[in-house]
Every structure is written in C-alpha cells, then in structure tokens.
From TrEMBL:
InterPro entries: UCP006257, YqcC-like_dom, YqcC-like_sf. Residues 22-116 form the YqcC-like domain. One of its GO terms (biological process) is single-species biofilm formation. It comes from Kushneria marisflavi. Signal peptide: none annotated. This is YqcC-like domain-containing protein.
Length: 129
C-alpha cells in the first residue's frame, strides 16, 4: 500500500473533500508567507460589515483567516450546502498587491482552488497530473 493521498491517486473526491484540501492549501500558503500569525483578531463589530470581504473593517488576510476559512469549514462540518458562486481570487489579487510575490502568488493559487471547488465542485488540475 502506498501513502499517495487519494486525491493524487485518481480517486474522485466529494465537493466537501475537495474544499477541505483547498482550504488546507490556503492556510498553508498563509502560514508559509507569515500572513497567518500576523493577522490580529478583528473587533467583534468588524464582523458586522456589509461590504464584500469586510473590506471596510478588515484586511484581506483577516477576512481569509477569521471569516472565509471558518465559515466554509463550518458549512462543511455541518454538511450544509456550499455557496455555488465565488470570485474570491480576483478580489484578493487587488487587496494583496502590496504583499511580496512569494507570499501573494501561493495564496492566490489556493484561492483559485477554493473558487473552482465552489463553482465546479472539484479542485483544479495541478501541474504534473
């Protein structure tokens, strides 16, 4: 028996499993770029924003860490329907422009995976597959 993850072994995943992989990649990219631990917990009132991505009350990094990832994980854990549209990566590209490419690009790639899972139900093909 090999230790190849089932998503690399050609076995199809559910949308929840695909989203779990995409969110794990996103968190890993944020951690690798030191964007995870540098995000200060927003004030409770910051979550009341009606702006997309809470842009008026949070940085993109805060929104990813404290809003997007926890909300999607909560939906998955409860086996609730997932949003069927997403356009997170293009918005994040605008908001993360100030970050170094080595930080920004892996996060954007992970967000493209999240978008694809939400819209198409599966991960994007990875290079070399």
């Amino acid at each position: 028996m090999t230790d190849i993850p089932f998503y690399q072994a050609g076995i199809s995943m559910t949308q929840y499993e695909s989203l779990d992989v995409a969110l794990t990649r996103l968190e890993a990219a944020m951690r690798a770029g030191d964007l995870w631990k540098s995000q200060v917990q927003p004030e409770p009132s910051a979550f009341d924003s009606e702006q997309p991505f809470n842009a008026d009350t949070m940085s993109m990094g805060q929104w990813l860490r404290y809003v997007l990832i926890p909300r999607l994980r909560s939906l998955m854990e409860g086996r609730h329907p997932l949003p069927d549209n997403a356009n997170i990566a293009p918005a994040a590209e605008v908001y993360l422009q100030e970050n170094r490419s080595s930080v920004r690009l892996p996060i954007l790639e992970a967000l493209r995976d999240v978008d694809n899972v939400l819209v198409n139900g599966e991960l994007r093909p990875q290079e070399g597959q």
